[in-house]
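Changelog entry

Holo records now carry the ligand SMILES as an explicit input line rather than a separate metadata file. Below, a converted record for flavin-adenine dinucleotide, shown in the new format.
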Amino acid sequence: MEAVQDIRAAEAPGLRHRIVIVGGGAAGITVAAALKRHDAKLDVAIVEPSESHSYQPGWTLVGAGVFTRRQTEREERSLIPKGVTWIKAAVSAFDPDSNLVRMSDGRALGYDYLVACPGLKIDWDAIQGLKDTLGKNGVCSNYRADMAEYAWELVRSFQGGTALFTQPAMPIKCAGAPQKIMYMMGDHLRRAGRLGSSKLKFCLAGDALFGVPFFVPPLQRAVDDYGIDVCYRHDLIAIDGAAKAALFSVTDKDGVARDVEMRFDMIHVVPPQTGLDVVRESPLANAAGWIDVDSATLRHIRYANVFSLGDAASTTNAKTAAAVRLQSPIVVANLLAAMQDKPMPKTYDGYGSCPLTVALGKIVLAEFAYGGKVTPSFPLDPRVPRKSMWYLKTKFLPWLYWSHMLKGGTIDIRHRERGW
Ligand SMILES: Cc1cc2nc3c(=O)[nH]c(=O)nc-3n(C[C@H](O)[C@H](O)[C@H](O)COP(=O)(O)OP(=O)(O)OC[C@H]3O[C@@H](n4cnc5c(N)ncnc54)[C@H](O)[C@@H]3O)c2cc1C
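Structure line, unchanged by the conversion:
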């Protein structure tokens, strides 16, 4: 209760906008741009602390030496749509009962409608010893731009030995990313004549290569092709970089856990991922810590003037920029309808996509919706690794992101369920 009063007291006159968007990442910029395209007079503000914006799907390619880090980054300033107010601060509390957010600089900001899309927390602290050794001792991660650069340094200089790749429990951003680097490294080592002297191991907390069974066979073929050992139910809990040792909690089929240590020459780590603390501690969160929205309308379950999308939302789709591209028009249409007290006109089917780089130059484009429904955009068997999908990933999708999606564009690449 005191926190609420604090917020009200700190609300500066005039610090209020008709629509407040929290987070100026993929989702926030896209929604803001689309709202302004719809009506240039709309009063929209984005609260975003960072001065730079990353195209995170490109980090996989940085780790494989295909993109430079610079290619994945732009100044946030250059992306804020014309006429949108950028409040350069982090939100430190949500108070939806008072239609306010509190910011890290102590100010409070009022709104009529809120779009909450601050992304998720990559929990680097959840793995003991990781922070001390990340970026040295052969410990890298494509889940941070600078660490993706280090990943490429390790991949290209790898002279043989053991390379470990870890994957935590779901959900995570881009569920395929923990294994994409592994296949590209396998291909790189083969081309360099060093695959024979290398042992690649995929240690994952779950017990399936991919959440959508339809896409497991092509991934299993890639695993077999590179001679990768897959260690299911292996959850990374600690790492000692100097000793080149990783500790896993390994659960057997009866649910009994024991600790297993593995040695490595290189390790690619993907930490567990949760809702941000500011979300988890707010009335917006569901029991699991994600922003509690209706999976179809993306409107908050309890607060009718609040919408959410992207990595922060409770929806069970793949947490991807591809999902954001499809969610944004739904949020915009439904928000505009809410502003006129009209019923929600649009629903989201859970579409997300994961371009699985099974080799340098070859991609299995996994596209799927709620319930694991396979929903490709193209009339081609999506299980087949294709060069055309590599061009889609390396050329078309970055263009689509920077030049179309973030500008609030409406190109609709129709996906649909097809039988194979
Ligand atoms: C290695 C990797 C590979 C990926 N590969 C793919 C892929 O191949 N295809 C694909 O479609 N997707 C991929 N993704 C996932 C995709 O990038 C994300 O799903 C997408 O960026 C989510 O958008 P978002 O706006 O919800 O979150 P983000 O883009 O992460 O943006 C969240 C924003 O909120 C801001 N923020 C955080 N806290 C606060 C706060 N307290 N107050 C205000 N603002 C805050 C952040 O600074 C950030 O700008 C990948 C991601 C990674 C890491």
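Spot-checked after migration. Residues 4-119+276-350 form a domain with the FAD/NAD(P)-binding domain fold (CATH 3.50.50.60). The chain has eleven helices and 22 strands.
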